[in-house]
Amino acid sequence: MLIKPIKLAPAREQVAQSLRQAILAGEYRQGELISLDSVAHLVGVSRTPVREAFQLLAAEGLIELRPNRGAVVIGLAPEAVADSFDMRILLEGEAVYRACMNGVDTKLLERYCDEGDLAVKYNEVARFTKCNMLFHETIWEASGSEKLKGFLRQLWKGLMVDQAVDKKANMAEAQEEHKELLAVLKEHDATKARQVMRQHLLCSKINALNSLAKKNKSEAPRHIGNV
């Protein structure tokens, strides 16, 4: 049946997603103080889902909770970004190894690579970001480990993915790395696939940190809401 029930995300997840996007976009800056009341007013919900959203973002490392005061934005601190990428290098290296051993769908990965080529050709960052996510998610899924998938999704949410591919040069570089990884997966070489994935993520880490350094030069902390 084509028509399926619509599943709406809980309010806490919707609030968390809205705040996450704002933080990653630089609307809330590192060191900025945000209160439950100010966010609740902005998004039009009660304090409870906002408090729960704060807890989710704190677990991702994007904010630091302040009892009875709200939270302080950690945001895209270089140390946090580097740590997240380091964890991805370890975990996604294992994920691609398992995916290769399990027989990942290389035709599906090839389709995402083809779509990525078009995104690079026309310099469409949003389109490439989506292809990039689908490419990696396919590998996570093929790993056969629910825990690995869960950890990697959590890390991805807290990463500055959009910043890592904010220039055409970086998109083209990542796209070529995807193609290299796809070729290795077609050869069923799990050990080499792990090496290629780790190198790919290391390059993404360097690009992300370089983008962050440039962005932070023009930013200074400010205060939002009564805390």
TrEMBL record:
InterPro entries: GntR_C, TF_FadR/GntR_C, Tscrpt_reg_HTH_GntR, WH-like_DNA-bd_sf, WH_DNA-bd_sf. Residues 9-76 form the HTH gntR-type domain. GO terms for molecular function: DNA binding; DNA-binding transcription factor activity. Gene3D superfamilies: GntR ligand-binding domain-like (1.20.120.530), Winged helix-like DNA-binding domain superfamily/Winged helix DNA-binding domain (1.10.10.10). The keyword Ligase does not apply. Residues 164-191 form a coiled coil. It comes from the Bacteria. The keyword DNA-binding applies. Keywords: Coiled coil, DNA-binding, Transcription, Transcription regulation. This is HTH gntR-type domain-containing protein. It comes from Mageeibacillus indolicus.
